[in-house]
């Protein structure tokens, strides 16, 4: 018995040592890849800018990152989606953008490094009105800090819904608005629901699952039912192994896991911020369902561009186009990315940049 105990202790010690060595090697390899990434993404030009900082916005410290090869270039403020989906770890594909634009990423209230600083103390302020004001203050800061009269706002997904509110409130701060994965309001998610149910019906038909077909048919017959029967969709999405509609693979020289200057603690708060923001801003009680862009009016005093993937199932193209058709602006363009899905700034960054140059930068 004593011999067996000694063998067990030695075995456990060996396993612990191997585990420590494996973790150490993994961390060392990650640090090495991050160093390589930092060199690849470094801004080398003498008139460039590469900064990250906390700025007092809306009464709290909020994180922004500024990168560009020439300070004289137009400034882009990228308003991320999610809600809570900070773009910092997945934006290495934007490196070519830095040649033509100064790109600003902003971790919104409740997201990423901003959430790391504040935690859940901002829960009561997670409102569309407050975050609209935050966006206005970020734009005002950037104008002063980068010495620009106006800037370009790109809004993605939730950020497109928030972005329209921001430019509507203070159009004088912006040169142009670019929406991608454009959310209009309830109509967007009703169309999304229809597409998801159609996919599930196809999977159920292929599997000859009569129960699934019956339950899915029952929730798709009445208009507006999408907001009251998500439990059925979730049930059959799991049972029929529907791939996550928001899954994507970012394109760029640095995989998100090895993004430089993004620690494991940053990843922890990135995930927590995503969950926290979703609790307050998504779902049946969120502002994207209980309000829509139509209520803000369709007159804009700045150019408006929509860059939309034709195969986007998260924020389908049809509601965005219907809204765009009614927009009155000094200039407007609806650019379709054939075969593109929801994350075209990340999985087709070079094509996205080409359209930014053609439609936005050419106006400067």
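-> sequence recovered:
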């Amino acid at each position: 018995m004593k011999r067996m105990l000694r063998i067990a202790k030695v075995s456990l010690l060996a396993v612990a040592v191997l585990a420590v060595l494996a973790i150490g090697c993994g961390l060392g390899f990650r640090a090495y890849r991050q160093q390589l990434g930092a060199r690849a993404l470094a801004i080398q030009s003498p008139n460039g800018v590469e900064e990250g900082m906390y700025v007092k916005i809306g009464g709290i410290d909020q994180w922004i990152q500024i990168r560009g090869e020439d300070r004289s270039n137009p400034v882009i403020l990228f308003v991320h989606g999610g809600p809570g989906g900070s773009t910092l770890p997945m934006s290495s594909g934007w490196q070519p953008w830095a040649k033509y634009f100064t790109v600003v990423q902003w971790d919104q209230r409740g997201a990423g490094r901003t959430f790391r600083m504040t935690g859940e103390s901002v829960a009561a302020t997670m409102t569309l009105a407050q975050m609209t004001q935050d966006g206005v203050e970020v734009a005002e800061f950037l104008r002063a800090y980068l010495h620009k009269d106006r800037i370009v706002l790109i809004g993605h997904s939730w950020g497109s819904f928030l972005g329209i509110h921001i430019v509507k409130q203070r159009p004088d701060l912006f040169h142009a608005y670019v929406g991608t994965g454009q959310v209009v309001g309830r109509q967007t998610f009703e169309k999304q629901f229809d597409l998801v149910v159609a996919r599930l019906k196809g999977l159920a038909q292929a599997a000859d699952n009569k129960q699934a077909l019956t339950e899915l048919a029952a929730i798709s017959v009445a208009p507006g039912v999408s907001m009251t029967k998500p439990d059925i969709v979730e049930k059959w999405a799991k049972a029929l192994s529907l791939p996550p509609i928001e899954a994507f693979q970012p394109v760029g020289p640095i995989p998100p896991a090895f993004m430089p200057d993004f620690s494991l603690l940053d990843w922890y708060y990135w995930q927590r911020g995503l969950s926290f923001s979703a609790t307050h801003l998504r779902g049946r009680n969120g502002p994207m369902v209980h309000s829509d862009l139509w209520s803000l009016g369709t007159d804009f005093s700045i150019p408006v561009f929509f860059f939309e993937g034709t195969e986007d199932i998260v924020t389908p193209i049809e509601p965005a186009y219907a809204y765009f058709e009614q927009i009155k602006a000094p200039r407007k363009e609806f650019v379709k990315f054939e075969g593109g899905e929801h994350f075209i700034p990340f999985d087709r960054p070079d094509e996205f940049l080409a359209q930014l140059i053609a439609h936005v930068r050419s106006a400067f």
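The chain has a mean pLDDT of 91.
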